[in-house]
């Protein structure tokens, strides 16, 4: 468990390093750094690691299914067990790439593109050196102008998190039939951005599942009004039916997936045409092995892909390799926290986009790994060397 310094209260990255008897090691991440759950993910990685001691790291497909089924709880899904599986799978793919001397994207089918368009994410918190949170409408305009000045042509904002004074609103504030002042606040912020920054760039509206089918539809109508590119997490992720309800009432494409796990979790969203832009987190959807299958299944249902990225630079590297290798890529998420030294110092390389575009690492494996500083300052560390056959 790594120490993210000034971000420690909200982020504790969980990194798994797997060593082989040939001296090659690989790093992977459990995507539960944000909010609560990091200690549980740490324990899950530790427990699952016992299932793969002594196995051939090149057999990633076999190992994924062993972790899924022999763990017993894996087949029930959920963020903690899938995050643990993801961390080990990514580390194994890192090993496989290093052993073969190729970047991970080659293991996924090779490149479909040389660069990935990306967006500046979560601007309600600020951007780079201009940190929020924001409440005043003019502040939203200013931070969008700042991101656009750095070469981005797409931004993402949650307009429901903070009130007009910049104070965090309760998790129930955006549920049900929204009050006129609430809707006016969101409308004013969106309108001011379009009036002052123009219409020749894209906006993704983030809701963080704070809304339900009623309020989600009300804000969705504003998304239509202001020509929003995608509308993210407008309803409870365990209920694709409500995403479908919203989808049928608005024109803006629905995006979701960071809290959906495995191909089984995404299947009902696809079947009901409840999502048009999937956002699997490679560090909690089942890793690169399962993530590639999710993206391939999305293509069958004409859904595009943007991997969720809100972890350490290892998470970013894993996402870039997958996004480079799939034909139905849409855009890459560049989270504002990923611009901060507290996270970039935790890994060996600091990959940042240029003029709103990312390139995929070309080193063997992930092309990213923990820094010595991260290991020296880790909050918790454990070594697992005991094999367990599983159930």
From TrEMBL:
Q: Which UniProt keywords apply?
A: Lyase, Metal-binding
Which intervals hold domain Mandelate racemase/muconate lactonizing enzyme C-terminal?
137-253
InterPro entries given for it? DgoD-like, Enolase-like_C_sf, Enolase-like_N, Enolase_C-like, Mandelate_racemase_C, Mandelate_racemase_N_dom
Q: Which Gene3D superfamilies does this entry report, sorted A to Z?
A: Enolase-like C-terminal domain (3.20.20.120), Enolase-like, N-terminal domain (3.30.390.10)
Instruction: List the molecular function annotations (GO) for this entry.
Output: lyase activity; metal ion binding
Entry-linked Pfam families:
MR_MLE_C (PF13378), MR_MLE_N (PF02746)
Instruction: Establish whether keyword Protein transport is in the entry.
Output: no
> What is this protein's name?
Mandelate racemase/muconate lactonizing enzyme, N-terminal domain protein
